[in-house]
Amino acid sequence: MASPSNVPPARASLATGPPATVSPEETNFLRFVNLVLKRAPKALRVHFDTVHPPNNLVSVLTTQRPTLLRLKSRKIINQVQWDTLFGVNNPVSKDFDVTLLICLLRNMSPSTPAPAGGFDVLPNSSDVSTGADLARIKFYRNTVAHSSGARMTTNEFNTSWNDIEGAIGRLGGSALLNEAQTLRVTSIDDSERELLLEHLLEIRRLRLERLETIPWNVRELIEEKLESWEEEDQVFVETKSSTAVEKFIKEHPCVVVVGHPGSGKSAIIHHIALKMRKEGFSVIPIHRPGEITTYHNRKNPQVFVTDDPCGEYTVNEHVYEWAKYSEDIKKCLNFKGRERQVKAKLLVSCRLALSSVRTFRKIKIFSNFIFNLENQENHLSFIEKKQILEAHVQSELDLPKQLFEKHIDCFPLLCKLYVNAWADPDRLVTFFDNPFIQLVSKFDLMIDDPKPESIYEYCSLVCCSLSEDKLALYLSGKENSEDFGCLEQIHNACEVDLNPSELLSAVNRLVGKYIKQIGQIFSVIHTKLLDIIVWHFGKQSPETLIHHSPLEIFQNRLRPFGRLECDDNEDLFLVELDESTLTSYVERIQKDLEQGIVLEVFENPTLPKAQIESCLYSLLEDRHVLDKALTKTGRSLSSVKKAKSTKIIVQLHESHCQF
Q1: How far apart, in whole angstroms, are the C-alpha atoms of residue 435 and residue 428?
Q2: 97 burial level (CB within 10 Å; 0-12, 13-18, 19+)
Q3: Is there a contact between 254 and 335 (Cβ–Cβ < 8 Å)?
Q4: Which residues contact 23 (CB under 8 A, 6 or more apart)?
Q5: Confidence band for 558, pLDDT divided at 50, 70 and 90
Q6: Where in the sequence of the chain do the CATH 3.40.50.300 domains occur?
Q7: CATH number of the domain at 216-378, please?
Q8: Mean pLDDT throughout 15-36?
Q9: How far apart are CA 655 and CA 646, in angstroms?
Q10: Would you say the C-alpha torsion 163, 166, 172, 177 has a positive or negative sign?
């Protein structure tokens, strides 16, 4: 038989249309396919029903469920096969594929003993044990599914046919043995040829699906994301830092690239992931650590990619998930260097401030592999900055060196913003001399411009920043499925009506400039830009920002009564609220508590401020709000105390409140 290939051939390699006559070699192959893919499974099911009679199958599966569950956890049994066993009222062997039948016979009691060489190699022809016959069916089925051609010499045909025909007779009885012997001399016409090849292609497709650990709908989303990475990668310039990170990940299972927002850390890991894709790696963007263990495939090289895995502004609850899954992830990433395990890698980007937090440092799969873009030796040189800017403007520039001598921690982002929003050579020096003033001025002009399209563009930026999920629903015409109060309030604050056609037109005008689109979701191109937009809108309508911003923005970007000691002094765009907003601020906290957001509320870094403590204690003094919230989430008061020991919690505790 033609030598197996690791890559299943395309349909064209099997048949380019029915020939006038079928050659002897093709006839041999098609007869053998018919025997292996149609008669052998029948024999296998006859034997399975003998060992596990249909009337008793449900009881046997129930008894053997713990064993089968372990096989599922090891991905030996996939979800489709599991549903075939336990997702129906009356499972029957005719619905089990060959792989599942052999797996059950090998592992369920009474288990079939393995032949001398095991189940994964072709047994010696003299071994006629049941285990050897199972191994034969498995071997020839895999050989047919892997074959790179559609021909078989007479010698190959006779040897292979005799081997598997005997197995069919021993497992399936004399009736199936007679069928096999008849097939050996039956002629094959063109219509049968096409049907057999279609069946073979279906087997190959099912085999690939079984090897695929990622559901098709998730794979579609991944492909959309990778397409956006490819587009952004068009202007990527390799630097000494990106080269160092690429070398690092080739030698280690993981790398965490840390830096300030806009420093290019995400662009670096995305670029490296795309290069690894060309080298045969499957690139899998993830959001949660459990996705690594779920999607890991020991047979294929993979690179998992995640941005801000434990939060963008402060460490969130995901840090505990990463700690929980650390040991399992180490096994997937081959920390111990097992020779037979196909390599899997993990590329991570993280804000510098978060990478130094104690809980983050405790995650060893992160803390041992940090690459800091903010180290002096990793700063962009003048030449690198010039190359990055020229890649964005797509032309060579004659620039004064002193313009880029000072370190700007978000230079790659500024290049993108300059090209997207200005691309005016006369304003280049002015922009990079003080880029943030230029951005704020741009937003001021949007508000002050008498043209309605300008204010709708501003509204679209704020909507993308505060409620991108509801914006997507609204623009898709699903008005009845969500409350669009946030979008209405944003437009009211800007003194225009919420108009779907105007808003959609504005969003479309800004896609590629300030907004990116992945699937149906629109979002601001970078969190640094989002910070500036939130800060700018906070000056226009602080009340709207308080009541409608996402929890992470509310807690980490809003500062009632001034900044905190822990705030980054270089963060210019924290929203500072005055005393007139105190009531609204506490009302927002109450609303979050009533929705069951307890632990996160008490992680708010502004709570220890005396004015907020006093007002919030008055609100919670009767215990009803906090009591209902704790009951709703099943949390205890002690869990909240552990999160943040504020005076409020201490006072509640000392009042002998029982929760």
Answers
A1: 10
A2: middle
A3: no
A4: 151
A5: very high
A6: 216-378
A7: 3.40.50.300
A8: 68
A9: 14
A10: positive
Instruction: Find the DSSP H helices in 281-339.
Output: 290-295, 318-332
Percent of the chain with pLDDT over 70: 82
**Residue 121: which region, alpha, beta or left (left: phi > 0; alpha: psi -120 to 50)?**
beta
CA 619 to chain centre: 41
Q: Which long-range contacts (CB under 8 A, 24 or more apart) does 540-543 make?
A: 540/447, 540/493, 540/494, 541/489, 541/490, 541/493, 542/575, 542/577, 542/581, 543/581, 543/584
Residue pair 199/145 in contact (Cβ under 8 Å)? The answer is no
pTM, whole model, 2 decimals?
0.60
448, exposed or middle or buried, with CB in 10 Å at 0-12, 13-18, 19+?
Answer: exposed
Contacts of 120 (CB under 8 A, 6+ apart): 135, 138
Copy the structure tokens of residue 77. 């049994």
Widest pairwise Cα distance in the chain: 94
With beta carbons less than 8 A apart as the criterion, state whether 470 and 484 touch: yes
| pLDDT of res. 331 | 87
Q: What is the pLDDT of residue 17?
A: 40
> What dihedral do alpha carbons 265, 270, 275, 279 form, nearest 10°?
120
Read off the pLDDT of residues 171-218 as tens digits, 9 standing for 90 and up: 999 999 998 888 888 776 666 667 666 666 655 555 555 556 777 678
94: enclosing H helix or E strand: none
Are residues 484 and 491 in contact, defined by beta-carbon separation less than 8 angstroms?
no
Give dist(CA 205, CA 651) in Å, integer.
Answer: 64
Phi (first) and psi of residue 523, to 5 degrees: -150, 160
Residue 233 region by backbone torsions, left for phi larger than 0, else alpha for psi between -120 and 50, else beta: alpha
Q: What span, in angstroms and rounded, lies between the C-alpha atoms of 222 and 303?
A: 13
Nearest-angstrom CA–CA distance, 473 and 481:
8
Whether residue 42 is predicted with pLDDT greater than 70 in this model: the reply is yes
Report which DSSP code applies to 10: P
List the alpha helices (DSSP H) in 74-189.
Answer: 79-86, 98-107, 130-146, 154-172, 174-183
Contacts of 46 (CB under 8 A, 6+ apart): 171, 172, 173, 176
Q: How many residues does the chain have?
A: 659
Mean pLDDT score of the chain: 81
- The pLDDT score that the predictor gives to residue 168 is 94
